[in-house]
Design a protein that fits this description.
Structural class: mainly alpha
Largest sheet: 2 strands, antiparallel
Number of domains: 5
Number of helices: 36
């Protein structure tokens, strides 16, 4: 690709490349390569379309500072509306500018220079002065004329090369904020500029691939200029052409034949293409304008300084940015019609921006690039202010029509702003370049749920930019998004858990886990009971997989230790209700096995430890009372349990006994039930604590603060020592007087201050 541009200075080489099908090949290749290579291919295609010196040539797709030499030979300049060949003025035309400096941030800069005759210039000058008039009717009619005639008769680039009409149209946009119907003139200007953007895009496409606009009848609409040209030629085939009709209509590019139109369909290109070569001049039939019929004395215009005009012309990037600067403020008007029309204009302008400006502009330090960057940042700041304005304009005390207007504007402007960012600003540069108003606007858009649902790609882009811009706002967004997702999971869980038939329990458990994160927002307490019932159902089934049981247990433990007190209260109360239902005395006449399995989700060391260590210690009375009741029902419920369930309970309880013994008490029902665990006899058999575990529990009771508990522990210890196998053969013999002093064996006279982090000291020596 880098070699091909060197061949452009040799016309035969260019012609040979075209004959080989280089245009078609590169056009197809362009869509399959990276953006930086697309720009190189565009430059090569531009070079392939450079005509020999007698034809107009397309400037390279980059911004150029020009050096020219004074012309030595004058040539005849012919324009759009000639009255007679004898009236043509002899004017000077400067040669094509030479490239001196290239700004790499631009994909396309200027169109080929098109000279105009006095008649052509008079048409433009007349419209320029009309647009500057104080007569609103004249301005309105001029805009209509521009749309219906002038912009279709002149190639679109003429209005960039002579930018006074464009500048007048841009100045008319300010009338959008005025009264007395002035906003209608602004809408007319918007319509003209939108049409110009469309025609510029067509002209740009034409210059890149003239063959794209075919003159064949089957690929051209009946209303197009090409079909009209064909009809005119056929209609005059059998007639003898008059001198007027046989005279060629001069073209703006300096060749005879039909003139280029603003829609990008150049009849010159059509007539000069194909295998038949150029059609003879006298075989053409021209379509005359009203100025061809009646002779009008035109005022004298000064001779054009072509070099000065070329320096004053608007490049395509300048035109695009000028529209942004002038049109974006109109998005804050109170008129829905104005906002819609301006957004349509900006949508067309955005397409041209993508064709003209590269995202590399932020790394370019040329004067042109610096100027463009400053203007773009101002525009982005204005867009951000506009988004915030329409977002803050929504309040409950306003009429519905105002709310709808602000909401529509907020969504529409937000979408446009994000698309501008996507086209021009790489995400990694957002933190360095984006103005504060745009950062605030992106934060508001990121939190807008309807936009995230309707435009997920836009939402993802907003989040990516926000992450680079403001870590605090991004953190708020993340927490908000998690809460929203959690609420969505809550709704899905409540919807699915009530469905009949077979359900995916693992998915339900995952939804329940996610739902807990948003409970502090919705506080829907029936959710807790549904989750606990689901956990009970899972552990009740013997066929449940260990994975499913483990995941459900994690959710249940989160509920038992939830930071929100109301969740813990509801969780403990629900568990207590289930235990009462399964182990209550009203179930004496019912089959035990069909009931007690419902409490299996509680019979696990982790669950029992959570209840014993934290539930009972909870300051809130509703929680600790429920925790005590749960443990009491379990400890006293042996008769209501199957042997399998009780053994499962004892097995799960063994690791938790050291914690439970802290609540041992001879006067408290729960404490007394805990003491009974340490009582055991060989006759108790299956279902009692293992002997080693029971001995350890008795020794631990000697550490309890209450003397009554220590006395009971001493009796249990003596009983254990006397009943163990071979007790009568062991020495020393058990002396009651010695054992009586064992009660206070681990009680010190002077309290010891325990330092849990200091492991070098022994507390008990």
């Amino acid at each position: 690709l880098k070699t091909l541009p060197f061949l452009f200075q040799y016309p035969p080489a260019v012609q040979h490349l075209v004959d080989l099908g280089a245009v078609e090949f590169l056009s197809k290749l362009r869509s399959n390569v990276e953006p930086n290579l697309q720009a190189e291919i565009d430059g090569i295609l531009d070079g392939l379309f450079i005509l020999p010196s007698e034809d107009a040539a397309l400037y390279p797709a980059s911004y150029q500072t020009r050096q020219t030499e004074l012309p030595q030979q004058p040539e005849i300049l012919i324009g759009y509306f000639p009255q007679d060949k004898s009236n043509f003025q002899q004017m000077e035309v400067s040669p094509r500018p030479m490239v001196n400096q290239t700004v790499k941030c631009l994909k396309f800069s200027t169109f080929p220079w098109l000279p105009l005759t006095t008649t052509d210039r008079h048409v433009l000058s007349s419209n320029e002065s009309s647009l500057r008039s104080s007569n609103h009717t004249l301005i309105w009619n001029t805009c209509e004329l521009l749309k219906d005639v002038i912009m279709q008769d002149f190639p679109a680039e003429i209005f960039l090369q002579r930018p006074k009409i464009v500048q007048s149209l841009l100045s008319l946009l300010k009338l959008a904020f005025g009264g007395d119907g002035k906003h209608r003139l602004a809408l007319q200007s918007v319509s003209c500029l939108q049409q110009l953007c469309t025609y510029l895009r067509n002209r740009l496409n034409f210059h890149r691939d003239p063959g794209f606009f075919s003159s064949k009848q089957d690929v051209v609409s009946q209303n197009s200029s090409l079909s009209y040209c064909h009809e005119v030629r056929v209609a005059h085939h059998s007639q003898n052409p008059s001198p007027g009709s046989s005279s060629p209509r001069p073209s703006v590019v300096g060749r005879t034949g039909q003139r280029p139109r603003g829609d990008g369909q150049d009849w010159d290109a059509v007539s000069s293409s194909g295998s038949s070569g150029r059609v003879p001049v006298n075989s053409r039939v021209s379509v005359h304008s009203p100025l061809d019929v009646v002779h009008i004395d035109l005022p004298e215009l000064e001779t054009e300084d072509t070099l000065e005009l070329q320096f004053q012309q608007l490049s395509l990037p300048q035109f695009c940015v000028s529209i942004l600067e002038s049109a974006v403020p109109l998005l804050r008007t109170g008129s829905r019609q104005v906002i819609i029309r301006v957004l349509e204009l900006l949508a067309e302008d955005l397409i041209l921006i993508g064709e003209a400006i590269s995202e590399d502009i932020w790394d370019d330090n040329s004067l042109f690039a610096i100027d463009m960057k400053e203007k773009l940042l101002v525009v982005l700041g204005s867009l951000g202010d506009t988004v915030c304005y329409h977002r803050s304009g929504v309040s409950s005390d306003q009429p519905e029509i105002v709310l709808v207007h602000h909401r529509m504007a907020f969504v529409s402007v937000s979408l446009f702003a994000v698309r501008v960012l996507q086209m021009l600003l790489p995400v990694e540069k957002a933190g360095q370049l984006l103005p504060e108003p745009m950062s605030a606007a992106l934060f508001l858009v990121s939190l807008d749920m309807p936009i995230s649902l309707e435009y997920p790609n836009i939402h993802e882009a907003v989040v990516a930019y926000l992450e680079q811009l403001n870590s605090e706002n991004y953190s708020i967004y993340k927490r908000t998004a998690e809460a929203v997702y959690s609420i969505e999971c809550t709704c899905n869980f409540l919807s699915d858990v009530g469905k009949e038939g077979e359900r995916n329990l693992l998915e339900l458990v995952e939804l329940a886990d996610q739902a807990l994160g948003s409970f502090s927002y919705h506080q829907h307490f029936p959710l807790i009971k549904e989750i606990i019932c689901l956990c009970s159902k899972i552990w009740k089934s013997a066929q449940a997989s260990p994975l499913l049981q483990g995941e459900s247990q994690k959710v249940f433990l989160r509920m038992l230790s939830h930071p929100l007190l109301q969740v813990k209260v509801e969780t403990y109360n629900c568990c207590l209700e289930i235990i009462k239902e399964c182990l209550g005395v009203h179930n004496v006449t019912k089959p035990v096995s069909s009931l007690c399995n419902g409490i299996h989700f509680l019979l696990h060391p982790k669950v029992l430890y959570e209840i014993s260590a934290f539930g009972i210690q909870e300051p809130k009375n509703e929680v600790n009372a429920a925790a005590r009741a749960i443990l009491l029902y379990l400890l006293q419920g042996r008769l209501m349990m199957t042997a399998v369930t009780w053994n499962k309970f004892i097995e799960s309880l063994c690791p938790v006994i050291p914690v439970l013994q802290g609540y041992a008490d001879t006067e408290d029902p729960l404490g007394n039930s805990i003491l009974l665990l340490s009582k055991g006899s060989p006759e108790a058999g299956e279902g009692a604590l293992p002997s080693t575990t029971r001995l350890k529990s008795v020794l631990r009771l000697l550490l309890v603060r209450k003397p009554s508990v220590r006395s009971l522990a001493l009796k249990l210890l003596a009983c254990h020592l006397t009943r163990e196998e071979g007790a009568d053969t062991k020495r020393p013999s058990i002396d009651a007087r010695v054992l009586s002093r064992v009660t206070n064996l681990f009680i010190v006279k002077k309290p010891i201050e325990l330092k849990l982090d200091d492991r070098r000291e022994l507390v008990i020596k």
